[in-house]
Amino acid sequence: MLTAPSPPVRPSPPARPLRGGKVTRLLAMCALILGPASPSSAAGFPDPFGTNPGNLQMFSHVPADLPTGRPLVVVLHGCTQTATAFADDTGWSSLADRWRFALLLPQQQNANNPLGCFNWFLPDDTARGSGEVLSIKQMIDTMAAHYGVDAGRVYVTGLSAGGAMAAAMLAAYPEVFAAGAIVSGLPYGCATTELEAYTCMNPGVDRAAATWGDEVRAASGHTGTWPDVSVWQGTSDTTVVPRNRTELVEQWTDVHGTDGVPDLRDTVAGYPHAVYEDAAGRDVVENYEITGMAHGQAIDPGTGPERCGTVAPYVLDAGICAAYHIGRFWGLDDLDSLNHLLRLPNLPR
């Protein structure tokens, strides 16, 4: 098993105590057990990145000779995964090299969580200005200072517990992100206790779209443009059940002030895909239903421009590369200026 290198020793807050009992069983439900990992070129960041109240580790993958003004993608791993292996296995590292953008790879520590899960269900770690979300925000600021990334093109994505934490980042710091992607994740504000987290994961929680939207609006007081969101979910997922996809779409369409009726329905690589537009006709929310797929992130190993990834537990060969299509939705491929400005997905080449 490849383990990401330890960053240099630096002052950090005292480790939070390990939690047992119900929370350990909860974390086990969403644990992503790593198989053999791919080699990684990511490295621990050489300097302190702030007060780090969440006591996280910071890793990055930056292509050689990356010019200033390029995008930044924050990639959040699942339980028991390492940040670098997850970025490699899902194809984000190869896309960063190919499309020329930087990756920020936050990593949880076992001192904070026995299975290395981001603490998506703890209010102290998901509220603006505190805990793990603030640590990740400080990492983003550090990447901007060191590499001159485009502050208008910062994105966040994650799987499972990482997907739920990606939703928390979008809610807590919406002004930071142009867009995000939540893969087998959960709506922001679904859980604030261990018991609620069980219920959110399976069988899921049904709330009105406006109630979900209020959770996001209350997280920051933001009044500007909201991040666009791509939602991915396997239809046979019993760990984080498909109801969470429905609730996530309701949450973010409400935040964007659009209705819950898709403006476009099509199939991509044979899978149902829906797009929701805002009042200006801009694609602001999309969702993919990966038919028959269990809990994990979809990849499509092999060669070719739309293929990516290495099969590992919960990194699943579904014949579609989620990272590629998420990157297209965000405009990371820079096909043309229109795609970048409007963020229209899946334009013909």
Count of distinct strands = 12
Mean pLDDT: 86
Q: Provide a count of the helices.
A: 11
Helix content: 25-40%
What portion of the residues fall into strands of 2 or more residues?
Answer: 15-25%
Bulk shape: globular
Please give the radius of gyration in angstroms.
18 Å
N-to-C order of helices and strands: HEEEHHEHHEHEHHEHEEEEEHH
Q: What are the segments in which pLDDT stays under 50 over at least 5 consecutive residues?
A: 1-41, 335-349
Record the strand order, biggest sheet. 1-2-4-3-5-6-7-10-9-8
**Secondary structure category:** alpha/beta
Strand count, sense and barrel status of the largest sheet are: 10 strands, mixed
Structural domains: how many: 1
Key words describing this protein structure:
ten-stranded mixed beta sheet; disordered C terminus; Rossmann fold; 11 helices; two-stranded parallel ribbon; globular; alpha/beta; 349 residues
Explain what this protein looks like in three dimensions.
It is a single chain. The chain contains eleven helices and twelve strands. With 349 residues, it is α/β, with parallel strands linked by helices. It has one domain: Alpha/Beta hydrolase fold, catalytic domain (Rossmann fold, 3-Layer(aba) Sandwich), CATH 3.40.50. Strand 8 (264-268) and strand 9 (271-277) form a beta hairpin. Helix 8 (209-220) crosses helix 9 (243-255).
